[in-house]
Amino acid sequence: MITAAHSLDETALVFHALSDPTRLRIIALLRRGERCVCELTEALDAAQSRLSFHLKTLKDAGIVADRRDGRWVHYRLHPDALETYGDILGALPSAGWTRKGECCA
Fold first, then answer.
1. CA separation for the pair 70, 67 (Å, rounded)
2. Which of 7, 16, 71, 92 could serve as a FRET partner for 81 with CA atoms 20 to 30 Å apart?
3. Among 1-5, 16-20, 44-48, which stretch is predicted with the lowest mean pLDDT?
């Protein structure tokens, strides 16, 4: 639920981030847990530069968080976003993709 603590600007960033089908697919994949950028690239069949743009938009909106592990970056849904927007994010269809094994070898 969006609360009074959220400014209109913050809310607009979230709605902008949720307005693109690719970003919604990313969120659906991350609902299953943290994913390496290489896994997301493969699952979405997207160029890394295009994917980076979408991930930055989601990160700027506070929906996605990241962590670096060596040269790879792993993404997950931000816990605060799940608490605030959980109903919206939970209503997204599940992504039909499963892990093939170890990533980014």
1. 10
2. 71
3. 1-5
